[in-house]
Amino acid sequence: MKRFKHYDARTVDEAISLLKEFDGKAKVIAGGTDIIGMFKDEVFAERPEALINIKTIPDMDYIREEDNMLKIGPLALLEDIAHNTLITDKYTALAEAARYTASPHIREMGTIGGNICQHCRCWYYRSPNNRFNCIRKGGKDCYAEEGENRYHSIFGNVKDCLAVNPSDTAPALIVLEAKVKTSKRVIEMADFYQTEDPMKFSVLDADEIVVEIQIPGPSEKAKSKFEKFAIRKSIDFPIVNCASLVECEGNTVKKAKVCLNAVFANPYAAKKAEEYVEGKSLDEATVDTAVNLALQDAKALSRNEYKIEISKSLIKKTLLACK
Ligand SMILES: Cc1cc2nc3c(=O)[nH]c(=O)nc-3n(C[C@H](O)[C@H](O)[C@H](O)COP(=O)(O)OP(=O)(O)OC[C@H]3O[C@@H](n4cnc5c(N)ncnc54)[C@H](O)[C@@H]3O)c2cc1C
User: Fold this and answer.
1) pTM here?
2) Residue range 127-148, pLDDT digits in tens
3) Where are the beta strands (DSSP E) in 140-208?
4) For residue 216, how far is its CA from the centre of ligand 1 (angstroms)?
5) Residues near 256 by Cβ (< 8 Å), separated by ≥ 6?
6) Residue pLDDT, tens place only, 180-224
7) Nearest alpha-carbon partner for 239 in 230, 247, 226
8) Mutate which of 22, 80, 105, 117 for ligand 1 pocket (most atoms within 8 A of beta carbon)
9) Shortest CA distance to 316 belongs to which of 244, 251, 224?
10) Which of 24, 9, 21 is nearest to 55 (CA)?
11) Ligand 1: does its nearest atom lie under 6 Å from the Cβ of 207?
C-alpha cells in the first residue's frame, strides 16, 4: 500500500475543514471495512492523499427515538442496528437488512454511514491496481457490457456504466422513508443517490459527510420486510435484495413501498408494483401481477437474466410477508 496521511477528526467541523483542505483528495474512513480494501488494492483512479477518520468524533453511534422519529448516528454499527429491539419491532426491514449484511466481524466494525456511502460493486471497477480505466474512473468504456456481467444491472446503465449499488441497508431506509442529515443539509434517502456523475456514488459533495439518519415512526398498521439473495449465506454481497413496507386499512392496501437493490446503479424503487397494489387486497394474484409490472422495464445483459426472476421472487416474498 502506498503512503497516505491519516487524521483523527475530533469534531464534524474538523473533519469538514480537513476535507476542504485536501480539496477532493481526502476520503472519510468510518469502520474501514470497505475503504481500507480499496486503498490496499489501489482501486482509486487518483490515489487519495489522506484518510480522515471520523470514528474519533464522540457520540456519533447512537440509536434513539425522539418525538416518534428514530435517529441513528452515522457510526452506529450494523450489528447494533440488527439487534436493537426498537428497530426489530418497529423498523423491521432495517434490522433485517443490517442482520444480513456481510459477516458478524464486518457488522461489528461496519457502520450505517459507511454502508450507504460505499462505492459500487463491479469487478472491473474494483480490480486491483486500477487495471480497468472504466467510466467510474473517468474512462470511456464499461467493460461489463461485453465482458463478465452476471452481477450487473438489469435496469440499464448510468452514463454507460452497468455497475450496481450493493448496499443492503439502503433499500430498507428508502421504504421506511428515511432522511439523511449531512453536515450541510437534509436529503430524502430516496434522493441520496444520483445518475449525473459516474465518478460520485451519492449526492454528497467531497467536503460533506453523513451526520445522522432520521426515520419517521411508521404507522401502527405498517409492516416492513427485507429479503436478500446471495450466493453464500454466511457472508456475501446481495445478488439482489428487496425491502417492502405495506400499510393496510382492513384488507385494503393504503400505502406500499417496494425497493430493490443490486439491480441498478442506485436502489430501484418498484413504483409500478407500489401503484398496482395500492387500493387492492394483498392476495397472491395481485402480488403476482405487481411483480410482473415491477420487472416490466428490466433488460437483462448477456449473463444476468436470472436476476429478473430473483427480483420477482423477492418482491413477492416481502410484500406477502407484510400482510
Ligand atoms: C467481505 C465483505 C463483505 C461485505 N458484504 C456486504 C454485504 O453483504 N452488504 C453490504 O451492504 N455491504 C457489504 N460489505 C461492504 C461494507 O463493508 C459494509 O457495507 C460496511 O457497512 C461499510 O461501513 P464502514 O463503516 O466499514 O465503511 P468504510 O469502509 O469506513 O467507508 C465506506 C465508504 O463510505 C464513506 N463513508 C463512511 N462513513 C461516512 C460518512 N459518515 N459520511 C460520508 N461518507 C462516509 C467512506 O469514505 C467510504 O467511501 C462487505 C465488505 C466486505 C469487505
Assistant:
1) 0.98
2) 999 999 999 999 999 999 999 9
3) 179-182, 186-188
4) 24
5) 244, 245, 246, 247, 273, 274, 277, 278, 319
6) 999 999 999 999 999 999 999 999 999 999 999 999 999 999 999
7) 230
8) 117
9) 244
10) 9
11) no
